[in-house]
Known about the structure:
alpha+beta; eight-stranded antiparallel beta sheet; seven-stranded mixed beta sheet; 16 helices; 37 strands; 29% helix; binds magnesium ion
Amino acid sequence: MKEFATAQIRNVALIAHHGVGKTSLAEAMLYLAKATNRLGRVAEGTTLLDHAPDEISRQITIDLGLAQFEWAGHKINLLDTPGYPDFVGDVYSALRVADAGLLVLRASAGVEVGTEVVWEVLQEEKTPLLVVVNMMDKEHADFAAAVRSCHDKLGLNAIPAQLPIGEADQFHGIVDLIESKAYTFTGKGMEEKSQEVPIPADMVEAVARARAHLLEEAATGDEQLMEKFLTTGDLTVEEIRRGLCERVVQCDLAPVFCCSAYHNLGVKEVLDEVVDVLPSPLDVHPQQGEVANNGSGPVTCRPDAAEPVAATVFKTLAEAHLGELSLIRLWSGHIEPGRELLNTGRNRTEKLGALYHLMGRERSDCRGAAAGDIVAAVKLRETHTGDTLADKARAVRLAPPDFPRPVSFECIHARNKADEEKMASGLARLHEEDPTLARHYEESTKETLVQGMGDLHLEILVERLKKRFGVEVTLTRPRVAYRETVKAIAQDEYRHKKQSGGRGQFGEVHLRVEPLPRGGKLEFVDEVKGGVIPGQYIPAVEKGVVAGMEKGPVAGFPVVDVRVAVFFGKYHDVDSSEMAFKIAAESCFHQAILKARPVLLEPFDEIIVRVPEEFLGDVMGDLSARRGKIRGTNAEGHQQVIKAEVPASEMYKYATHLRSITQGRGHFAAKFSHYEELPRELADRIVTAARAEKEAGAAHHA
Ligand SMILES: Nc1nc2c(ncn2[C@@H]2O[C@H](COP(=O)(O)OP(=O)(O)OP(=O)(O)O)[C@@H](O)[C@H]2O)c(=O)[nH]1
Ligand SMILES: [Mg+2]
């Protein structure tokens, strides 16, 4: 493919609820653009875009796909995003770099849950949109209802730019309201043939009404256009497009089109409007970034090939037949293979290798790209998803996609010791590629946890670890990182004395243990008077206490939030040593804490749940059943936002559960909040379990 100038580029993301035909639409576009001579089918596993084996077997999109093709003298960079909520990270990636979106709806359902969920991201990114009502050929297709749902559920000003002729199995043509022309499809798809016909008699009135509405909306916001519309009642095709274009860029309006991607009906018309109505990289706000230590505030990266390079790496692909690739959006400057750039976040020089244009699984060489374009580059060694690449002369750093925090977690185990290292490096790589997959080693439970956006996300992680890194892993429910503390003040003493020929060991320590407020960790106090324990041994006493805190007396969890004072002791001129005092202190601590009413603490998460009004009662009831404490609720648009504190032990698989009780419409974010004392009966259960485990361990070693 030749190189395109910035004005001729369209970066467009396909966004929607899962399974409404985003990938099918992209395939139809590639077919129309003659980028392929076979129309790819999701159900048959023949698509260019869903090409990974796990995508083909599940018939869903897992990884963001890129389809680059030429249409009407323009280069379209189409970003096909996954609709499953587990892979929402890629929606953030795509919207970070797309200049516009195609919001795809199912004609029989209109706005669905998945669309509502990504709506927030669309609004944050201020993405200009066209709405495409797909599956017009299917049962219960209802174009008008789908349009209404945009207004009702999203508050989106969706204005038809087309009307369908017939719906469901009667869908056989389109009235183009911009050009005031009607077309019927001559074959059931594939051939893109359509024939101009008079506007059907029974639609004349509806067309006139819809067209007047469209023209009025197009003229709003432009005084000249409005004046002409009011005096003549009409606008030229160019004026309508100009007016629409302006309002689309302002996110004031989204024109609505209809099609059947599967039968390739109406898709050509959508493509034409992508070129005519959606903005080029020149029409959207330029990126602003920071240059470290320049002291002059944000730097603007204009979409100009003559400027220094500024680019965002928004996705890393790793497929056996594609190799490892970084997808790069160029905001300013020009790049070509062999170009040296700086990874500004990591301060590493990187040299670009081969560059490619992608059509899903197919790639072709790219000799250069100008500001605004998207290219695939052979993965750079130290550059990962979200990083900025820039010319050294202007080492600008741009905001990465604002990825959501992972909400699902599991404990991950390698099959054997030898696999553990491979697992760790595999997890590190997968995290660099997909920041919504995280891993974390929990010191107190000695477990490695993996975190993702849902069960399916983690299931795919397991499969990919096996396929790409050759490690077999299993997932289990993580242990809860309980802690122990005390509720009373107590003291005790301990003498460590050993005489076994030669030099002996001697140290006597008296300790007092007191409770501290939550979050107090350890406060160690030296109250020794008169040198009964010489100053040089006090650090050893503290070390003994710290060692003693590793395993609490209740169930062996770490002890926190205690003040420990050493207030008396004895030493021996010859036999005392640091080791002797450390041992004495550790033993003394174990004795004293037993008398200080030790208890178990459990971690609480602070969570924020967003749900539509009608699910508020169910979700709150469910949170209470999980021993959650509701801290407040308030309305945000159509949604209720619940703030609560919930025991971490009750949050296992909550992402899946919340989806099921809210028909997929609730979502949440969680983070660690604090520790609280565990209720008695639950504590007893944990103590019993810990004892059983200890005994089993002892039996195992015997
Ligand atoms: N009848 C009919 N079926 C369609 C149409 N568009 C898509 N399909 C079918 O709907 C199913 C889902 O289509 P996809 O293109 O995979 O949908 P998607 O939105 O990309 O799905 P995800 O990427 O998993 O969110 C496939 O079996 C398609 O063949 C259409 O216009 N008409
Ligand atoms: Mg798809």
